[in-house]
Amino acid sequence: MNGINRTTTSALIWLVLLTMPYWMGAVGGYTELASRVLVLGLAAMALNFLLGFTGVLSFGHAAYFGLGAYGVGMVLKYLVPSTPLAIVAGVAVGTLAAMIIGALIVKLRGVYFAMVTIAFGQVFFFIAFRWNSVTGGDDGLTGWKRQPLDLGFTTIDILGNDKAFYYFVLVLFALAVACMALLLRSPFGRTLLAIRENERRARFLGIPVEQHIWLSFVISCMFVALAGTLYALLNNFTDPRALRWDQSGNFVIMAVLGGMRSFWGPLVGAAIFVVLQDYVSSQTANWMSFIGMFFILVVLFFPRGVAGILRRRTTS
Amino acid sequence: MTQLLLFNLFNGLIVGAFYALMALGLSLILNLSGVINFAHGGFLALGAYIAYTLIPYVGFWGGLLLAPFLTAGLGLVVERLLIRRLYGRDPLYSLLLTFGLAYVLEDVTRVIWGAQSVPYPIPAWLASPLSHDLFFLTGYRLFMVALVAIAVGGLFFILNRTRLGMRIRAGTLDLETVSVLGVNVRILRNLNFGLGIYLAGLAGVLAAGMLGLQPTIGTSLIMPSFVAIIVGGLGSLPGTLLGGLLIGVASGITTVFFPSATEAVIYVMMGVVLLVRPRGLLGEEGRIQ
Predict the structure, then answer these.
(1) Helix then strand then coil, % of chain A, to nearest 5
(2) Residue B182 domain boundaries
């Protein structure tokens, strides 16, 4: 029963994602908004790999998101005009930073892990903010554009055609999500769940807990960096706000809002958050209060998120 | 050169004193209740603006005296209404809640007092430099350092010599036993939160006199306060104090030699501390797990 349910959910979600650019306009959205849902959804799902499936609270994922974004921008601006190469470089930069910082923090747990990840996130913010000549400082990194994909026999114009770019993002999204799903089903993924449920018991069983948490952190950051590269490509722009702490908070609230215990939950959370933010910031200058109240209400009244509510419905 | 170095050293000390004041409040709340109060910077800004509003009626000294208490009162209400519900739950939730609260406080401050930076009036006799050679040594700065010292002394007096303080310290070690011994833990946590917010309010009033007032004044101080706690050692208040002063002085000195790394240097320090001594300079063993 559960298996069938899960397959139906997945099929439904893929159907929605595949057709999104075609009905987004009809419901008042636009293709770029659909791409943003997809990109931030990927970031939230990647964060949830660590948060929901390993049980480790990182509040600094914006750093790796932003590193991916700056990596892609700088390669396109200063080195080679090739979108795929730039993406690879951006992901590599984010992953490398995660490997180093991850090694420093794997021994910490709970609130302390969260606090250190927040603080480390700020380093990259200040580098981006201060290193004016290279990063553009506060104004952001401009003067570059995503390049059409050259496949040898044909080129795909992801720059001029919004829908083409959406499907380009969707392909990478699908690859990343498939990787995460396979990893979670593997013995490695099961071990992560065991650590989440009872770390001490896992340790007694001889599982090298620190190694697993480090690896999970690095994998999570790698996919967040991928999302970051796509976000920069989407906007043809990136600025220090992409790696500031409030962005990290947004990722966490997306995951919680959708449901941390659910694989697809964070994508749903991201969709709700992105659409809401788009709407509220177009209506009022006080969007910060709205978003803040939204955080508080979610924590107080929907701590299990959308997925939690749905699950309770079906079981009762 | 010597003068420049002295100037930045002293500057760093002052900034460090702010970090320490902020971080001590954060640390109190974190140690007893396991809550990282992201909204601490918001309370700091609120304290500063409350003092700014009061000054025309009660004067500089009245504002300095009253505003932190009013801020602390607000803190008590917030703890009672929102934060109390989250004790014992996954720390994720209190983190998200105070995160949202930080947004709301910053926006409310902006709506009430405006987004523009406004000057904070300080008495003329405090604003003038004490000597011509040491131009940076204004009375206000010395006064600020003295006041922070008094506040920190007062805090340690409360913690070590009063019943409330001893209960807070005991609760930090073993809240359950304290509760069994007949202490009302709800009230204890409430008062402890208020005490932490009082320090934020005081830091706000003092910072306003030096940096001027703007709604984001707290946001720029909260991250270094986290670093101060981590460098100083989790669970140790003297460690937090030391951490705050240390990173302040370090960033002050860095300004002389490598100005663009002023902010980044404290995170490098944090990395080094985590590498060689994960529990922090004065941290208790086993606290980080």
Answers:
(1) 75, 0, 20
(2) 16-218
- Number of domains observed in the structure of chain B: 1
Spatial separation of the C-alpha atoms in residues A77 and A232, rounded to whole Å: 12
* Torsion angle of C-alpha atoms A155, A158, A161, A167, degrees rounded to 10: 110
pLDDT tens-digit map of A38-64: 999 999 999 999 999 999 999 899 999
Question: Which token pair is B149?
Answer: 């010292």
B265 located within any domain: no
Q: How many residues can be counted in chain B? A: 289
Nearest residue to A86 (alpha-carbon basis) of A102, A70, A98: A70
Angle at which helix A31-51 crosses helix A265-283, to 10 degrees, equals: 130
Q: Are B287 and B235 in contact (CB under 8 A)?
A: yes
Number of H helices, E strands in chain A: 14, 2
Among candidate residues B269, B160, B176, B217, the one with its CA nearest the CA of residue B44: B217
Residue labelled with tokens 């400082």: A137
Backbone angles phi, psi at A141, to 5 degrees: -95, 110
Model ipTM?
0.87
Q: B interface mutation test: which of A122, A138, A302 has the most B CBs within 10 A?
A: A122
Is residue A185 in some structural domain? yes
Q: Where are the alpha helices (DSSP H) in A52-82?
A: 62-74
Number of Cβ within 10 Å of residue B12's Cβ equals 24
Spatial contact of A28 and A158, defined as CB atoms under 8 Å apart: no
β-pair partners for B213: B118
If you ran DSSP here, which 8-state letter would residue B233 be given? -
> Any residues with CB less than 8 A from the CB of A171 and at least 6 apart, and which?
none
- The model's pLDDT over B56-91, given as tens digits with 9 standing for 90+, comes to 999 889 888 999 999 999 999 999 999 999 888 888
Which residues in chain B touch residue A289, judged by CB atoms under 8 angstroms apart? 103-104, 107-108, 111
- Identify which of B41, B158, B145, B162 has the alpha carbon closest to the alpha carbon of residue B102: B41
Q: What is the pLDDT of residues B215-271, one digit of tens each?
A: 888 887 888 999 999 999 888 899 999 999 999 999 888 888 888 788 888 888 988
Domain assignment present for B115: yes
Nearest to A116 among B102, B111, B230 (CB): B230
The confidence band for A2, taking pLDDT boundaries of 50, 70 and 90, is low
Q: Is residue A199 part of a domain?
A: yes
Is the residue at B214 inside a domain?
A: yes
The structure's pTM equals 0.90
Residue A230 belongs to what domain range? 31-244
Name the burial class of residue A103, with classes exposed (0-12), middle (13-18) and buried (19+) by CB atoms within 10 angstroms of its CB: middle
Tally of CB atoms within 10 A around A151: 9
In a domain, residue A272? The reply is no
Whether B271 is covered by a domain: the verdict is no
Contact B234, B288 (CB under 8 A): yes
The chain A residues in contact with chain B (CB within 8 A) are: 51, 57, 59, 101, 104-105, 107-112, 114-116, 118-120, 122-123, 126-127, 130-131, 245-246, 249, 252-253, 256, 286, 288-289, 291-296, 298-300, 303
User: What number of helices (H) and strands (E) belong to chain B?
Assistant: 11, 0
